[in-house]
Design brief:
This protein is an alpha+beta fold. The protein is built from three helices and six strands. Strand 2 and strand 3 form a beta hairpin. The protein starts with 13 loop residues before the first helix and ends in a 7-residue tail after the last helix.
């Protein structure tokens, strides 16, 4: 049985990268890192949000995932058939509404901060 071929991932547009970085909450414990080679932010070692190609992805509590899905958000699937639990892809229309996106990024920060800190390997 052949191993599944990894898809080729494209870079996030510079303007989306700038928007994302400008909206990362300035709060204690927030760290800028990369995930999958894309800009992301973490709290206590837990990823809160990041970019993936043309998309913004957020890690949210169950109630917040249910709420944002009403706006058109979808479960995050970095490769077909592999959904990342607790993560959603925000609707692209939200990229044009920095206030709404900032609110959801703060909810992602709050959720990541509520999780136990990740242990370093």
């Amino acid at each position: 049985m052949a191993a599944a071929k990894m898809p080729k991932w494209k870079k996030s547009p510079p303007e989306l990268q700038q928007l994302f970085v400008s909206l990362v909450p300035a709060a204690p414990g927030v760290q800028h890192k990369k995930m999958f080679g894309y800009p992301a932010f973490f709290v206590n070692g837990n990823m809160a949000a990041g970019l993936f190609g043309d998309d913004v992805i957020l890690k949210l509590a169950e109630k917040d995932r249910a709420a944002i899905q009403k706006t058109g958000a979808a479960p995050f699937e970095p490769t077909p058939g592999r959904v990342m639990r607790e993560y959603v892809t925000v609707p692209r229309k939200m990229h044009c509404d920095p206030g709404a996106l900032a609110t959801w990024m703060e909810k992602a920060r709050e959720y990541a901060a509520s999780l136990p800190p990740k242990k370093k390997a």
